[in-house]
Design goal:
By secondary structure, the protein is mainly alpha-helical. The chain has 16 helices and no strands. The protein has helices spanning 8-33, 38-51, 53-78, 86-104, 110-139, 143-164, 188-191, 205-222, 224-234, 236-241, 246-262, 264-273, 284-294, 299-322, 328-344, 350-367. The model has no long low-confidence stretch (mean pLDDT 90).
Length: 368
């Protein structure tokens, strides 16, 4: 083990735990400043997200969105790319889901529509990531800048389409018609009433997200393409010297990343809202960045981090209801602190931990 390299359990477990603990410690100080008991706030937050089955169902619903966007960011990370366009890619991915549902919902059952919705969302999300990928690969335009720009373009595009082309005739609302049963994924409570999820909108797209995790793991760690992606991300110069095409890797990686982000729309459009409407993404793409960072760009870590942020979303709603002084804006502050410590301050504790673990390793090496 080289100097500065930590055991996997420390790198993947201890450091994220310390970052998370620091975020909640600072959040606790904020709660104290507004005159509330932080321990009581934590109790309400955990109970609201995990303490009863319906609340846990909402947690899983939010986590499903974060799994898709977290995977999208993670795949790009492995190639050394920073795709922060998941928000726009998921937004445009909603078009693919809506087109499939609007075309098929009156003629076939949902399980026939679902594969077309998955394909449509992935293709639309990938298409929205293609131009930033091509500009980075062929013209050197930084993917961060172009994906930010494409986020805003997607918002304007969706407003135009929903107001002028896709809106239900006679309606003043910028949204499509409500899908028939053939365009609606069953809620888990409908399939398994004994689970007691109640009105929680958690649906079968959760299993689509878990399947995506498995496929991403296979791609990144068990295929030649995945090896090339990781090699390019670790050392682009050496990868080019080894014969790996940077244009090919950048474009393919961004297409996969955009496709995964686009698939987030399945949960919201086909699984919950049952229609395409304005602003259904609501920040899930940006939170996916923190999910990928906290999960160390590994599918298992992403699932765990997604559940954590699902807890913050659902538990935060309960918290703002039970403690009126802690408003939704305060919940956003807490979420922001978690993102700050998991992302921008990710290396806050690493140097100290490296110093703690390095002497024992060196001593063991000398004794051997």
């Amino acid at each position: 083990m080289s100097a500065g390299q930590l055991p996997r359990w420390v790198d993947l477990g201890l450091i994220p735990f310390l970052n998370l603990a620091a975020a909640f410690l600072v959040s606790g100080l904020v709660v104290i400043l507004i005159g509330e008991n932080p321990l009581e706030a934590v109790k309400i937050l955990v109970w609201g997200s995990l303490g009863y089955v319906e609340g846990f169902g909402f947690t899983l619903f939010y986590a499903t969105n974060f799994i898709f966007t977290g995977l999208a960011v993670a795949v790009a990370f492995h190639a050394g790319l920073f795709n922060i366009g998941g928000e726009g890619q998921a937004y445009v991915g909603g078009l693919g889901v809506a087109f499939a549902c609007l075309a098929l919902d009156q003629y076939v059952p949902w399980y026939v529509t679902l594969p077309f919705a998955i394909l449509g969302s992935a293709v639309m999300g990938a298409a929205w990531a293609f131009i930033p990928a091509w500009l980075q690969a062929k013209r050197g335009s930084h993917v961060v800048i172009t994906t930010i720009m494409f986020n805003y373009i997607s918002f304007s595009l969706m407003v135009y389409l929903l107001n002028n082309l896709l809106k239900k005739p006679g309606s003043m609302q910028p949204e499509t018609r409500t899908f028939e049963d053939g365009g609606r994924l069953p809620f888990l409570n409908d399939l398994f009433p004994s689970l007691g999820f109640g009105y929680a909108p958690v649906n079968l797209s959760l299993f689509v997200a878990l399947a995506a995790c498995a496929l991403v793991w296979l791609l990144i760690w068990r295929t030649k393409l995945g090896f090339e992606i990781r090699s390019f991300g670790a050392n682009a110069t050496a990868a080019v010297y080894a014969g790996i095409s940077p244009v090919r890797i950048i474009v393919i990686t961004m297409l996969i990343s955009g496709g995964l982000a686009g698939m987030m729309a399945i949960n919201e459009i086909m699984g919950s809202q049952h229609r395409l409407l304005i602003d259904f993404v609501t920040g899930y793409g940006f939170v996916g960045i923190a999910v990928a960072l906290m999960g160390r760009a590994h599918p298992v870590g992403i699932v765990l981090a997604a559940i954590l942020f699902g807890m913050l979303y659902q538990g935060g709603a309960e918290l703002s209801f039970e403690m009126p002084n802690i408003t939704r804006d305060m919940i956003i502050v807490i979420q922001g602190l978690v993102i700050l410590f998991a992302g921008a301050l990710e290396h806050l504790f690493r140097p100290t931990i490296v110093r703690l673990f390095t002497p024992s390793r060196d001593l063991a090496a000398k004794e051997a």
